[in-house]
Amino acid sequence: MVLVYSVGHISGAHFNPAVTLAFATCKRFPWKQVPAYIACQVIGSTLAAGTIRLIFQGHQDQFTGTLPAGSNLQSFVVEFIITFYLMFIISGVATDNRAIGELAGLAVGSTVLLNVMFAGPISGASMNPARSLGPAIVSHQYKGLWIYIVSPILGAQAGAWVYNLIRYTDKPLREITKSASFLRNKERC
C-alpha cells in the first residue's frame, strides 16, 4: 500500500507483470513499454530474493518463493481467483475516473492482505509472476512455477475484461445517477 502511494505517480506502481499485461491488453498501458517493465519487475524480485538469501545464510536459509500446499489444480484455481479479484479492484480504483483515486493504495493493499490471509495456506498467494520467479531463480527451485506464471496472467486478464464489461460508460457519476437511478426515475412519475 505504501509503495503504491510513494511511486504510483512515477511508474504507475507496476510491480506485477500480470497487471502490466492486463493493462496493455485493455489499451491502458503502451505495449512498447511492457518488455522493459516486466524485465525490471523480474530483476527487482530476483535481487530482493538474493538479498534475503545473503542475509539469512546457513541453517536460516529458507526458500522464499511459492509452492502449492495442495494439488497443482487447487493452487492454479486459487491463484486465478485471487488475481482476478486483485485486478478487478485495481481496474476500479486505478482506471475509472469515477472512483476515489486517493484510496487506490488502501483498496489494493487491503485486497492483497485479504488474499494472502485466505489463499496463502493453499497456494502461497503469489498473484504476481515476478514475485514467484525471482525466488525460484535464486534458489533453483522450479517445482510448480508454471502455476504462478500462467494463472495470475489469466486471472488478471479476466479481471480487467470483466471490469471493463460491467463499467458500461465513461460518464461521470453525477451524470449516471441522473439517468441510471431507479429512485430518481420513480420521483419523476
TrEMBL record:
Superkingdom to which the source organism belongs: Eukaryota
Membrane topology: Multi-pass membrane protein
InterPro entries given in the database record: Aquaporin-like (IPR023271), Aquaporin_transptr (IPR034294), MIP (IPR000425), MIP_CS (IPR022357)
Segments traversing the membrane: 36-56, 76-94, 106-125, 145-166
N-terminal signal peptide: none
Main location: membrane
Family membership noted in the UniProt record: Belongs to the MIP/aquaporin (TC 1.A.8) family.
Name assigned to this protein: AQUAPORIN NIP2-1
Species assigned in the record: Salix viminalis (Common osier)
